[in-house]
Amino acid sequence: MYPLGILDTNLVFPHQAGSIRMKTEIVVMDNCTSQHIIFGNYYLNIYGIDINNHKDKYFTIGETKRQKASFSNIPQQISLVLSKKDTYKEEFVTNHLVEAQINPSLSLKMRHELIDVLYTYNNAFFSDHEPLGAIKGHEVDITLNIDRPYPPVLRRPAYPASPRAGEALEKHIQELIQLVVLRKVGHNEEFGVTTPVIIAWHNDESRMVGDFRELNTYTVPDRYPIPRIQEPLTQLSRANILECHFGIKIAPSHYQRMMNTIFPTELSEEWLIIYIDYIIIYSHSWSLHLERLERVLHKVSEVNIKVPLNKCNFGFEELKALGHIVSGLSLGIDKNKVAAVLLKPIPQDKKEMLSFLDFSSYYIQHLKDFAIIAKSLYRICNQQTVFERKQERIKAYEKIRKALKEAPLLLMPDWNIPFELYIDAGGDGLGAALHQVQIIDDKPTEGPVFYISRQIKPTESRYGASQMECLCLVWALEKLHYYLDGSVFKVITDCNAVK
Q: Any signal peptide, and if so, which residues (predicted)?
């Protein structure tokens, strides 16, 4: 039996959620009577097919529901000779990389190239034997605003624990000691602060939680600046390929400082976004994207950061990040997060109302005239104001809910074409909308890039109409300086005096 040749072909596997098409090479053998095709689990995982060969056999394709699997005449063992590298690589793909989200629309060649890069730097990811990383060259100093001896509230005894909680607590402590996260204090060793811990349960799984409330009261806060969320996201303009890693647990300010120190060049080149515990890599071509991914993973490996694969997305044209749906063309609200808030009843007290307003203001760039609409709601949250649900406030609340539900996609700014700045001033506040006309699907399309608004101050309420419109223009130019500095733009107003 010898090969006659190699045939390039497409294999189609029908499925109710959509057929799977595999572009592959088939070796045509002379005098071969076999009627079976053999695919390794590594190959199947590339296409998002996961076969579970336990007692209750099933398979899944992508995110579809489990389907019954029928296995017949399975041999007990098949001997295949693999190199040690191939064996380790297959084990990495099958047991670890399967936790990550890889864009299913990537070609087979692109998937192999991506897997090669990820396997080369597999020590950058969590593993069973090393679930945590001791980051090299960075230490966290906790500074207290009081001197020794510390007050009794910082030397608190342990909380009483049930036998079940005590057993779980001991298990967590031993695991952390083995990972060199904790160490036992010597008999004569001096220590200044003790904080109790509790065991929290979720679906019969335990988690050790520290009660640091008193410690935080005496801790000097780290004032390292966290970037505003809007500017990093607008860097994704016209990016074709996005990557997202997140889930690294560290104090936000220290984490931001540490990552800015590790990736100064990459951040200055503006293809890497780091915001708290998100790392986003974006590129305009696949080859460039792989180079950038390799650079990031190389540095991550060097400093011993461990990234959880189950929180990673690779090779997508759009992804969820920071409460948004981001792509190279537009920025949208994550509707799943909004839906959870919209299902709640109308706020019953000041605390619930402030919580709703805080959530809504996170998406303020999507909401036209938000500050003006929310004026009456913020007023009843004042300590000197009685919380009453008047008709005016209920209407304002419903208007914000509707705005969240119908929030438009924001265009990613293109600094190569002009902007259009719409301004409008009234008795309740100032509002402005930054627009652009961009070519989308071969058609010129006008859409918003950013909305801003604010309430007017008491002294400004005495301004005339033309003065108010001029105030609105100056304020809008200052607020939107990031977009308009050095750009061509047109101001659009309904005030004849300003025109």
A: none
